[in-house]
Specification:
Strand 6 and strand 7 form a beta hairpin. It contains 16 helices and twelve strands. The chain starts with about 25 loop residues before the first strand and ends in a 30-residue tail after the last helix. The protein is globular and about 65 Å long. Helix 4 packs antiparallel against helix 5 and helix 10 packs antiparallel against helix 14. About 40% of the residues lie in helices and about 15% in strands. The strands form four sheets. Strands 2, 6, 7, 8, 9 and 10 form a six-stranded antiparallel β-sheet that branches. Strands 1-3 form a two-stranded antiparallel ribbon. With about 500 residues, it is of the alpha+beta class. Among the domains are: about 160 residues, no CATH class; about 90 residues, no CATH class. The structure holds adenosine monophosphate and magnesium ion.
Length: about 500
Amino acid sequence: MHSSQTLEFTLTWRQSFDALGTAFYNSVQPTPLSRVHWVARNKKLAAQLGWPEYLWQREDLLSALSGNSVLPGSQPFASVYSGHQFGVWAGQLGDGRALSFGVLQTAIGAQEFQLKGAGLTPYSRMGDGRAVLRSSIREFLCSEAMYGLGIPTTRAFSLCGSPDRVLREEVETAAVVTRVAPSFLRFGHLQHFASNGDTASLQALVDHCIEQHFPHLLAVQTGAPRYTAFLAHVTRLTAELLAKWQAVGFCHGVMNTDNMSLLGLTIDYGPFQFLDGFDPGHICNHSDHQGRYAYARQPQVAYWNLFCLGQAMLPLIHDQDMAVAALETFKTDYPLLADHAFAAKLGLEGSHADDHGLIESLLNTLAVEKTDFTIFWRRLSHATGLLSAQPPAQAFEKVRDLFINHEGWDRWLPAYLLRLQAQDLPQTGERMLKTNPKFVLRNHLGEQAIQQAKIGDFSGVDHLLTVLQAPFDEHPAFEQFAGFPPHWASSISISCSS
Ligand code: AMP
Ligand code: MG
């Protein structure tokens, strides 16, 4: 039944680039899909937005979020950006399969709503404007997994499916994810106007970003000082993001400059992976033959990408030394932020000169046997909590069991115990359990949910959503999501194809 009512609560859309003009976007209409249905609905996010629960029952919401109609009052558009892909200038890209409805005021502030996979746009190039169910489930779940972990990210509001066929390496079916974020602005948006020599548009876009998202920078003297502060701020947000990625073992997989958010959000989930075993050289993207985006290289790549952003900002900053100085803060901030993140995983209070060495020697130990990253930290958290009641050998037995050769672990543990000496151990353990998740979206978990969904059973997606939105809780009913990966997990091949 098609409802003739409009949504009962008022949607007042603001164009994301309202005052900026048509250099930044093109109006587009979504291309309908047949026999659309819900695959997943993020009720938690809807509640956070302040939207009523009955909304999900409405046909017109399903219709709009699958691209079969347009939400009342919105004027959908696709934006233009450019970027470096795998270190090479790729020229103009843009929202090739993303369409924004605009910005809505919500209970969690102004949020832009964007459909991914709703059909062709002027920026689709050789693509079909579609997204397949497989990759859309991965994006939907991982957005919320990152949110649950406290890592800045675009959110996922809903996931719609259709039996319409989409050709990738094989024939798959179409899906549309609705993404929500304060902004989907990327490094590439600024690179686009810089590369075209359109300094007026570049400036308008940076001013817009400052006004909408970094109003504290309005206090900085206008002109080069403010634009330098902008670059320094994006650098800081990116350093914070990277420290969080590394600490949780997240590999993005395609850190091209068009996939880097100006707001420091994790954006564009493609061939990402959470590490199973700790392997610093791990490459999660099957198409990344050089390992450019390997886990341990991510901070360096972020810096490289920031450098491209700095280059794009030069027409506004004028002085190369000022731009470089803003970027250089990454080199001092990132290592401190990363140490801070890993010290928190270890439950360390305060900061000691030897902490960096303690962290490094532990990570080297984990790398030798590619010890399971998530399980290690979770067991360490439990063990530390037990230390006040049990001797170390007993408390840490389950951690030690994770190693075949115990030498490295046995050498490391005394230094850790010494460092914890003055701390309240049960409290430390509790804190660590809120820092080291029990659940991450391992590849094989996503894969199982995908296989189920392909035959029409969406319960796996739903269960994972529940668990991943609260990954520090125990969820005894879902113990199966917290185990070691099965052998076949290492043979899952995730390419850019989505
Ligand atoms: P990605 O590597 O997924 O971030 O995509 C890089 C660029 O290709 C972006 O401009 C996307 O919008 C575009 N793109 C990716 N897949 C498609 C598709 N199926 N149809 C149209 N454009 C696409
Ligand atoms: Mg992208």
